[in-house]
Amino acid sequence: MSAVVEVKNLTKEYKQKKAVDDLSFEIRQGEILGLLGPNGSGKSTTINCILSLLKYSAGSIKIFGEEMTPDAYKIKRDIGVIFQEVAVFEELTVYENIDYFCGLYVKDKQERKKDIEDAIALVGLDEFRKYYPKQLSGGLLRRLNIACGIAHKPKLIFLDEPTVAVDPQSRNNILDGIRKLRDDGATICYTTHYMEEVEILCDRIIILDRGKIIAQGTSDELKALAKIEEKVTIETKHFKPEFLEKLQAAPNVDKAEYAGHQLVITYKSGKNNVAKLIEELSAAGITCNKIFSERPTLNDVFLELTGKELRD
Ligand SMILES: Nc1ncnc2c1ncn2[C@@H]1O[C@H](COP(=O)(O)OP(=O)(O)OP(=O)(O)O)[C@@H](O)[C@H]1O
After folding, report:
1. Is the pLDDT of residue 311 over 70?
2. TM spans, by residue (predicted)?
């Protein structure tokens, strides 16, 4: 896959503080790249530097193989940007707003009409096309904001935390829409601090912390960095302490604890941990009410690499 965006040794300082610290990465043709990091990790600053909205202290940025500058209008024509803050006209309806933003790029009326209809369908705003922004809920407004940013069919799309404080229905609609844009050929950069979203949405993920890349790869590649392989929780009222000792001595067990009728085991490795455990429990005459197994999340990866939680 060729690189649509190439960022090399990007550094951005605000006074003494490095908001972005020597970042190098690429966004590949046709992928959804997730930039994941806690608040203040440098996601928005990175995007704003890529878009030439901010001057940076050092580094270079190429988009579509050409150097990105504030007056690179040919490159900008093929970029769509959706910021966190909704930026639409209160005086215009849903349809008119999309028409306005699309009209900045697409002059042909018939072509624009089709683009607007495609955008309305993508974000599911058909029944609201005559509504004014103040008549829309927060989630619908975000959907309008996205429609305005992508109606001109850009090849490269940046979405900066588009689902913050959005209701679940609009969130699902937005995530489905982004997948569809990718499937239709767009390259997408998606920033968020919601790890669940990047896990289900992104082809590749870059984890940022304090302006630096701390890990990158697919969700599975990143999870392989977590120390644990699986966490199994069992509810049982008839536990036998000697069984705990046996578990703790097993070579693939990282930790085994029993408290409040719950046995929690974290495994370092192993493929059929739950099946083997059920067999062993049954052989030891221990009955259990509930068993559930969890795989490591990106939060575990973040915890492993930084010693702190990614969650808010
Ligand atoms: N205009 C500014 N002046 C000074 N410091 C700034 C400015 N903008 C951002 N910063 C600092 O730079 C760092 C990175 O901020 P940035 O907004 O890029 O992070 P973020 O990961 O996008 O966070 P969020 O998820 O909250 O949007 C933070 O420490 C922030 O306080």
Report:
1. no
2. none
